[in-house]
Every structure is written in structure tokens, then in C-alpha cells.
Amino acid sequence: MKKAQGTIIGAISGYYDVEINNEVVRTRARGVFRDRKQKPLVGDRVVVQIDDKGMNYLVELLPRLNEIGRPAVANVSKVLLVISAVEPDFSLELLDRYLTFFAWKNVGVVIYLSKSDIASSEKMKKIRQELMYYQKIGYLVFEDAERLEQELPKLIQKDRIWTLAGQSGAGKSTLLNKLESEANQETGAISTALNRGKHTTRQVKLFKYGEGFIADTPGFSAIDLFKIKVDELGNYFYDLKEASTKCKFRRCQHLKEPGCEVKKLVEEGKIAKSRYDSYLKIRQEIADNRMPEYLKK
Asked: What's in the keyword line of the UniProt record (predicted)?
């Protein structure tokens, strides 16, 4: 018997498909995971005990970076966030909600603006101006689908996992199907080994893309922010967090405190007012959800 490390790329009916050095090994989980109250997830890095007779077992779950989504994917390093220009209309508020959520989850985000080809030139001019701010604060933004497909394999580093997220109707499934179809042409052996069937939102699988993986789930369109601690919210707005180092008070909440650098930069137009407005709105949402019932009466 020998042991090897790999990544769970599929799970169904108690079996786990693990990719080890570009080969797929089907395994079962040892009872030790139940004893530890651990549930292996797609995306987990694991140690597999390989038996020459074909009885392969998961014997160890390596430390997990994160867990996001429903159904869950573990160890997501980046999210490709699909936001549409039209149908449904582009929304800065929605964009900020997603960016806040993934910052809280410690997951990087690449923004893809879909349906730009069917938006009016006037609308696209406005959206591009708004997205320039996000590029300035460090987010990579794609608008052209062909450029995205050219650059994405270079962006996905070895063994890293990406998944998609975004509003319903933005085109996540269309993009995902295209990426998966292209990837399967290059990695047919892996796809065959998995007996891949029709996509369902209840079962996550990973497919090879570039040097890493993409989760073949269209992500999720609804996100809850109420579990974020209200006094830590500013940490997940990277532009506000950077400015806050110059606030007079170390734990400034950027509300009515004197000497607030964030409010100063908003007034000067150096921080987008829409970002600050999103911060205030999400902050209120969190506060309302955390308020005890007897205080709401």
C-alpha cells in the first residue's frame, strides 16, 4: 500500500473521485472522519491510501483554506464574478455586496461584465467609467469574452480552484458550459473517468482548466452578509480599509467620528460615494439582523 496527496474533484453516494498527478482515483472515506465530525468536500486536499486491489481510502483531510457556496466547495482561491451590463441591469450595489462577501471569505475576485455586446454605447460608457474605480483599487475586470477565455488559463495557477458567482440571469451557466466544453476537449481522459453526466446544482465537480480547476456549479446568486461583525465590515471594503489607517481613531467606523479619513476622501471624490453608500447600507442591514427581537418591538 502507498499514500498520495490529491484533490477531491467529485463526490457522489459516499464515493470520492480524487485527482492525483492528472489521474483520477475513486475512493471511500474512512470512518475516522465521522468520529472527527469531518465531512470531505469537493476541493479538499486529501491523503489517499492506495490499494493495489482497488480499495482506495481517504485517510486524512489536509487543512482547509475556506468553504463557500451551496453546495459547498472547499479551498476556493478565486471567484469569477459574472455581472451583467443589461438584462438584468448593471448594479454597483449588487457588485459591492458580492465583493464584500468574498473579501469576508478571504477569496479573491475577478470581475467579468457579461452582455456588454447588447448594451447601448451610452450605457456601456457609464458602466466602464464606474468599473474603472474598481480596477484602480485592485480588481481585474474583463468585458470581452474572447479575452477572458485567452487570459483565464494563465490566471489559474497550479492546483488552484476557481468558481463562478453572480446574479441570476447574468450568463454564468452559459459561460461555465463554454469553459467546461473547451477544457474537456483537452482533458477527455479525466472527464471519461468521472462518468460525467448532466450538470446539476446539487452536485459539484471540478474540471481541469489551465493548471488548476474550475467548479462546475454556476455558483450562487443570493448572499447573506448578516453574519459579518458590524464593527469589522470596513475591513472587507479594501479601499476604506486602506484609508482608515489615517483615521484619527483606530477603530473608526466612518460614521460621525471626527478626523475620519474615509469620509474626507469620499468628499474629495477619491473614494467612490457609491462604495461608501454601499458600506452604510450593508452596515445597517447587519445591525438590523443582529438586533434582538425585544428591541424591535
From this structure: Cytoplasm, GTP-binding, Hydrolase, Metal-binding, Nucleotide-binding, Ribosome biogenesis, RNA-binding, rRNA-binding, Zinc
